[in-house]
Every structure is written in C-alpha cells, then in structure tokens.
Write a structure and sequence with these properties.
Rossmann fold, oxidoreductase, alpha/beta, about 35% helix, NAD, binds nicotinamide-adenine-dinucleotide, alanine dehydrogenase activity, 13 helices, globular
Length: about 375
C-alpha cells in the first residue's frame, strides 16, 4: 500500500503522524511511505531520518495526499479539501461533531474517514485519544496556572493566585468537569502543584474508580448542577474535560454560570475540539490563545498537545502505529471488517455517516457500516 504523511498545516501544529521508526517498519512490510518535506521537523525528525528509514520525501502536500491511505494528526483544513476524493482512506483526528463543513466535504467526496478519537475497544476505552488527552490534561493545568498570574503574557491579567498557596495563604481551587483521561491527568498535576482539586464526573463507576485512585488527595463527586454552582463560586481554575464519544461536548455552562467565578479566574476548555462545554467557548489559537467573557479568561486551544510536539508525537504514534500497520497489511476494508475497534471508528464511508454519535450531532441520518 502507498501511505502518505502530509505536513500538518493547522496553526502552530508541530506533531507528525508517523516517526521514522514507524516508516521503517512499514517499508520492511513491503509498503511505500511518502512523507512531505519537513513534516517531521517540528517533532525533531529530519527528512534524512525518514529517507534512511526507507521512506520517500515528496516535495508537495499534493504528492503526499496522492497516496491510498493518508495518515495525519489533525483534521483536514479547507486548503486540503482539494485532495479529498472517492476511495481515499483518511486516518486522523476528525472531531466532526465540531466541524459540520468538513463532514459535508467528506460525504460529498466519499472518503473513508477513520477518526482516531472514535477508535473504541470492546470495554469502551478510546486508545488513540487517551495519550493526547493525558498530555492535554497535564498541559491544561500548567497553562491554566500560568494564566492565573497577573503577569501572564496576555493583555488580560489573571486573578493573581498561586496554585499551591504559601504559609498562611490558601491554595487555588481547581474544578474539573469530567473525570476521564483529561480530567484525571489535569488533577494529578494540580494536586502536585498543591491546589485544592474537585472533580465532578457523570458516570457512577468512574466516580468510584477516581475515588479509589485519588483517595484523600482530591474530592470526587457525581456531577450535579447545584454541586457545580457551589464549586464555581470559589473556583480559580476551571477545566472542561467532559466527553460523550463522537458527540458534541455536553453543554454544562452558560455565561451566567461563569459569572459566579471570581474576576480574573481561568477556564481551560479542553473539550473545545468537540465543540466545548460552555456556550461561551470558541476555539482559540496559539497566536491569540485567550479571550475574556463573564470576567473569566477563556483558553480554548483545540491542539494543546502541539505545544509539546516531541513528547506528543512519541505518545500518539506509539498508539496509532499498530492500527496503521493493520490497515496497510490487511487492506483497509479487511482491517475494518475484522477489527471491531477500527469498525467503530469509521465516521464516513461512500457518502454515508457511519458513526451514530457523529450523525446525531450533525442531525443527519446514520447508516450502519455495510462491508
Ligand atoms: N484540546 C485538546 O487539545 C484536546 C486534546 C485531547 C483531548 N481533548 C478532548 O478532551 C475531552 C475529554 O477527553 P478524554 O479523553 O478525557 O475523554 P474520556 O472519555 O476519557 O473522559 C470524559 C469523561 O467525561 C465524563 N462526562 C460525560 N458527560 C459528562 C457530564 N455531563 N458531566 C461530567 N462528566 C461527564 C465521562 O463520563 C468521562 O469520564 C474530549 O473532548 C477530547 O476530544 C482535547
């Protein structure tokens, strides 16, 4: 199979979808790997490392997109829509619930679009989203802590609160909505920094597991709106981490809810890639990461892991590579037919939406995958 690795073009996206070691293994399996010039540079991999591994460096995005299977990190942007075509296999983060325009194009162009975030194992885990969520959760706390400073590098001063407090001064209050991979990782770092941490989680089994994991180190409760209001009144750093796989993020917050938070407090909406958990959330970029609404600094970066591309690329490709190899070895249709976790992750095929939550979020018909 011919596998294409285009350079990422999203704002300051420095990750790459395949590392040279992965390219070597695919070439040894008998496949051809086309890597766009410079695609690995942001993650510390030179073109020479890819050619040494047996991949071919191609000069343009069009050359990489000409492959049968294109593997990326982030969803295709409008500049890339020209490369989409019937029969193309696309394996990447898609987050279509937040991007109806891309969904339309994938349907019109009859692309076989497989979303990393919807690869789901029989026990409900999301193995390809998990590593990036662990990175994003840790970063959300790190970045949130620095935005809380009065001098935070933006035009909007934070509340001026130190995460861990100091002798005779209370630490910051951190509220995390959703206790999955993002929430748990964000909590670990916040606890490590000495903050007082609360997690509100919607699944009873997850509440029990989180309590077991954190013990006395943080307070974990079942999500209830009243509970959230009480926590918001004293919240310095709020982290949005709720997810229903494939669907639009649950809408948990309005501007009047956020007004309960002290002025200059910080809201990191990590769930922005699925549309965000607040009516006040809209995607931001590394050029302008922050805006203020209801007196609260909002930071809604849809590609947080790109801030640490060396770590993120290693973490992502370690999980995606076995699936890439499977798609290439068995052929895309056979791989999807034989592996339930891959089958669940097909978002569009032959002009149909084949993922129920994506269809529901778009208000369009769902067509069970027919092979
Ligand atoms: N911005 C970024 O760069 C970035 C990076 C990675 C992940 N994400 C996003 O972060 C979000 C969370 O991802 P994750 O891997 O932690 O998902 P996850 O499935 O591991 O955890 C989500 C948790 O939210 C809980 N939940 C669902 N509805 C809820 C509600 N109404 N109230 C409270 N909890 C609720 C679920 O029970 C689950 O435990 C996703 O939208 C994901 O795409 C963003």
């Amino acid at each position: 199979m011919i596998i294409g690795i285009p350079a990422e073009i999203k704002n300051r996206e420095h990750r790459v979808a395949l590392i040279p070691e992965g390219a070597r293994a695919l070439v040894e399996d008998g496949h051809q790997v086309l890597v766009e010039q410079g695609a690995g540079a942001g993650s510390g991999f030179s073109d020479k490392e890819y050619t040494d591994a047996g991949a071919m460096i191609v000069a343009s995005a069009a050359d990489a997109w000409a492959a049968e299977l294109v593997v990326k990190v982030k969803e295709p942007l409008p500049r890339e829509y020209q490369f989409l075509r019937p029969g193309l296999g696309l394996f990447t983060f898609l987050h279509l619930a937040a991007c109806p325009e891309l969904l339309q194009v994938l349907l019109e162009k009859k692309v076989l679009a497989i979303g990393y975030e919807t690869v789901q194992t029989d026990d409900g885990r999301l193995p390809l989203l998990a590593p990036m969520s662990q990175v994003a959760g840790r970063l959300a706390t790190q970045i949130g802590a620095s935005l809380l400073q009065s001098e935070n590098g933006t035009q909007w001063p934070g509340r001026g609160v130190l995460m861990g407090g100091v002798a005779n001064v209370k630490p910051a209050n951190v509220l995390i909505l959703g206790g999955g991979n993002v929430g748990r990782s964000a909590a670990e770092v916040a606890i490590g920094m000495g903050a007082i941490v609360h997690i509100l989680e919607a699944r009873v089994e997850s509440v029990a597991a989180l309590r077991q994991h954190f013990g006395q180190r943080c307070e974990v409760r079942f999500f209830a709106q009243q509970m959230m209001f009480e926590a918001l009144d004293e919240c310095d750093l709020l982290i949005g981490a709720a997810l229903v796989p494939g669907a639009h993020a649950p809408h948990l917050l309005t501007s009047s809810f956020l007004e309960r938070m002290p002025d200059g407090s910080v809201f990191m909406d990590v769930a922005i890639d699925q549309g965000g958990i607040s009516e006040t959330s809209r995607p931001t970029s590394y050029e302008q990461p922050v805006y203020v609404e209801s007196g609260v600094l909002h930071c809604c970066l849809p590609n947080l892991p790109s801030a640490v591309p060396v770590s993120s690329t290693q973490a992502l490709t370690a999980e995606t590579f076995p699936y890439i190899r499977l798609l290439a070895q068995a052929g895309m249709v056979s791989a999807i037919r034989e592996h339930r976790s891959l089958r669940r992750s097909v978002n569009t095929w032959d002009g149909q939406i084949t993922h129920p939550a994506v269809a529901e979020a778009a208000g369009m018909p769902y067509e069970p995958l027919s092979l």
